[in-house]
Amino acid sequence: MAIYSQEAKTKVSVKVNPLRTLGAKITVNRVTLFAARHLSQSIIFNKACDSVGRVIKNNFMSSYVFGGLRDYGEEKVSLSDAIKRHNENIENRDQNRKAYDLLKAGEIEEFNRIFEGKTDSLGLSGVILKRVNLSGVVDLEGMDLRGAILKRVNLSGVNLAGVNLKLAKLFRVDLSEADLMGANIRGAKLRNLNFNGADIKGADLRDSNLSRVGLEGADLSGANFSGAKFSGVTFDESTDFTAAIVVGAKGVPERLIKEFWLKI
Length: 264
Fold this sequence. Notes:
This protein is an alpha/beta fold. It contains 5 helices and 10 strands; from the N terminus they run ββββααααββββββα.
C-alpha cells in the first residue's frame, strides 16, 4: 500500500503483513493508519472496526489550514477513498500555499495569471490577510475562505460570487462594488465594512454579526439574515432588501422593515 506522509511530499510504501491481526498499527510521519491486506478496500472503516474509525477520524482526517481534508465526523470512509483524498490534499497543498503567498504579498498580476478561473478549487480556510490591496484581482469566485481573518483588506470590485466566508472575521474590509452573489457568509463577524454598491443577492448571512456596515446602494435582494445582528448599519434609498429574510434577526432598521415588508 502506498500513501503520502503529511510531512513529506514523496510517496511512502507501507507493507502490511496479512497475518497480523486486524488493527495492526502503522505509523508514518505522524499519520496513523490501521489496515490489513486481507481487508477489502471497499469495507467501511466504521463497520470493520470501531478503533479504525476513531483513528481515521481523529488522526488521519484532521484538517490543515492549507489542506483539502476536513474532519469527516461520522461520515463513513473506505480505505481507498481515505488514501485518495489524502493524496489529493498533498497535491493541492502547494497550490494553496502559492495562492496564499501571492495574495499576502499583493502580487495581483501573478495571481491572476496562475489562478484566474481556478479559484473555486483553492482551499484557504483559516488564513490571515492584513493590510493588502486586492482590488485588482480578477476572480476569487467560489474560493474557500471559511474562518479566515481579513483586516484592512481592499476587495472592492472583486468577483467573490459563491465564496465561502462562513465563520470568517472581517474588519475594515472594503467590499464596495464587489460581487458576492450567493456567497456563504453565515456566522461571520463583519465590522466596519464597506458593502456600498455590492451585489449580495441570495447570500447566506444567517447568524452573522453586522456592526457599523455600510450598505448604501447594495443589492441584498433574497439574502438570508435569519438570526443576524445589526448594529450601526447604514443604507440609502437605493439599497435593495426585496425578499430578504430577517426572521429572528436583531436590530434590523425599522425603515427597512416598513419599506420592504420584512417579517422579523
